[in-house]
From TrEMBL:
This is Spermidine/putrescine import ATP-binding protein PotA. Pfam families: ABC_tran. The gene is potA_2. InterPro entries: ABC_SmlMolc_Importer, ABC_transporter-like_ATP-bd, P-loop_NTPase. It is an enzyme of class 3 (hydrolase). The keyword Nucleotide-binding applies. Its EC number is 3.6.3.31. GO terms for molecular function: ATP binding; ATP hydrolysis activity. Gene3D superfamilies: P-loop containing nucleotide triphosphate hydrolases. It comes from the Bacteria. Keywords: ATP-binding, Hydrolase, Nucleotide-binding, Transport. Residues 11-231 form the ABC transporter domain.
Length: 239
């Protein structure tokens, strides 16, 4: 396995712009975050700190620019498919569910890898065949988009363009950039979908029960599994 250097850049923002209507809140933002870094964004209210975090997490789309994870632009990848976790200041629990219900909700969606002996050889062969097919399609689409982008950029260099024409060309270039990001992630996305369907399985009821027991014990709530969240709030405890 390749040794990963601590200095390796894992997240990059490259020339990122973000506009809300006619208001530009981010202008040519560039940022590199290396593995092991602890990064804090400082600035006055309205300077774009939260917007940057939302862009990284996938809760907002860039107007233009790149958001790279391990060198791949993922700005078109939705939040739930990004390898990130966002903790909001006001965390959310399901008030209508018990302690156990809140823990169980996420576990029901969990999938775990199948054992090697559970997967037929024909599945692996199919996977390798499809990966080659997906890779070829990805390469072809990226090549087409590079040609299109080079053409649009050349047209935008014309100083005689009027504002309306320039905006139309810029919009086409921005759109092609998002499509480029989509195709850059095509192989990974298709591979993950295949793995989820054929190489993983749902977690069993017994496994769910064990994880719930371990988590409840870890946070010191043994005996409170069926109590409502409101009964365990700081306000209730201090009452």
């Amino acid at each position: 396995m390749k040794n990963i250097e601590k200095s390796e850049i894992i997240i990059s923002l490259v020339d990122v712009d973000k506009e809300f209507g006619d208001k530009k809140v981010l202008d040519q933002i560039n940022l590199d975050i290396k593995r092991g870094d602890f990064v804090t964004l400082l600035g006055p209210s309205g300077s774009g700190k939260t917007t940057i975090l939302r862009l990284i997490g996938g809760f907002e789309w860039t107007t233009r620019g790149e958001i790279k994870f391990n060198g791949i632009d993922i700005k078109d990848v939705p939040a739930h498919k990004r390898d990130t976790a966002t903790i909001f200041q006001d965390y959310a629990l399901f008030p209508h569910l018990s302690v156990r219900g809140n823990i169980e909700f996420g576990l029901k969606l969990k999938r775990i890898k199948k054992k090697a002996e559970e997967i037929p050889d024909v599945v692996w062969k199919k996977f390798e065949h499809l990966k080659k097919k997906w890779q070829d399609k990805q390469n072809r689409k990226i090549k087409e988009l590079k040609i299109l982008q080079a053409h649009l950029e050349k047209l935008l260099e014309n100083p005689q363009l009027d504002i309306k024409k320039r905006k139309k060309l810029q919009d086409k270039l921005d759109d092609s950039d998002f499509r480029y990001s989509n195709w850059e992630n095509y192989l990974t996305s298709k591979s993950e979908s295949f793995k989820k369907k054929y190489l993983t399985r749902r977690i069993t009821k017994q496994e769910i029960n064990k994880e719930i027991t371990d988590i409840i014990d870890l946070v010191g709530l043994t005996g409170n599994e069926n109590r409502a969240i409101s009964e365990l709030s700081g306000e209730w405890n201090n009452g």
